[in-house]
Amino acid sequence: MVTGGNRGIGLAIARSFAAAGADVIITHRSGTPPEGLRGVLCDVTETESVDRAFTEAEELLGRPIEVLVANAGITKDTLMMRMSDDDFSSVLETNLTGAFRCARRASKGMMRMRKGRIILISSVVGLYGSPGQTNYAASKSALVGLARSITRELGGRGITANVVAPGFIETEMTAELSDDLRKQYLSGIPAGRFATPEEVAGAVRFLAGPDGGYISGAVIPVDGGLGMGH
Question: Which SMART domains is this protein grouped with (predicted)?
């Protein structure tokens, strides 16, 4: 299951799994799933919606979810002095508590199977920081503590929990950057370019595959060296 798998990085991850022959279910808040993918409606800010989505996905698959990619997220960027309580709490409610709700629900089936992979999509901003994103950075950095606590709780049940932290990615959002702003961002990236969504998907697939079975509680940066492991 890939939450928020109807666009951007989430869609690239879902398509990557599907191309590898996996049975993929995405979650989306409205509309219909992208062509070629199966989806269930889900609002990660509501526990009942998460439970219902997982139940529907399990019925479609005929078994519990083996791999959860918690990708759904939002931004409400503004300088801290101008940030309202709602700007802060709503971002944490989706990005952090939403990921927790999905991980909690997924773990039930994983514990019965005594196997599972939980992959939380964070951001280089979560560990590197960014002005105007105190809410987003706080929500994304907290995913590291969530993954490591899950690892300590459930590692003995064959369940891994890891974090993937993308940097700047070639998406519709970055395509709209001005040339000057794009040059400014690129100047801080040793690789000298933005990543493709498929490169993030490759890291996620590695953690979900057999070669990632002994990796847990880790943070995997996909940022061209921007964060330098922070």
Answer: PKS_KR
The tokens describing 217, both together, are 């509680």
Domain map (residue ranges) of the chain = 8-222
For the chain, first and last CA: distance in Å? 28
pLDDT digits (tens, 9 = 90+) for 138-161: 999 999 999 999 999 999 999 999
CB 54, CB 65: distance < 8 Å: yes
Reference 16, options 156, 205, 178; nearest CA is 205
* DSSP three-state, residue 35: coil
Chain segment 80-120, per-residue pLDDT in tens: 999 999 999 999 999 999 999 999 999 999 999 999 999 99
Which of 138, 140, 9, 5 is CA-nearest to residue 68? 5
Q: How many CA atoms lie within 13 A of 161 on its CB side?
A: 24
Catalytic residue list contains 128? no
Tell me the CATH architecture of domain 8-222: 3-Layer(aba) Sandwich (3.40)
3-state helix, strand, coil in the chain (%, to 5): 50, 15, 35
Q: How buried is 116 (Cβ within 10 angstroms: 0-12 exposed, 13-18 middle, 19+ buried)?
A: buried
Q: β-pairing, 116-121 with 159-166?
A: parallel
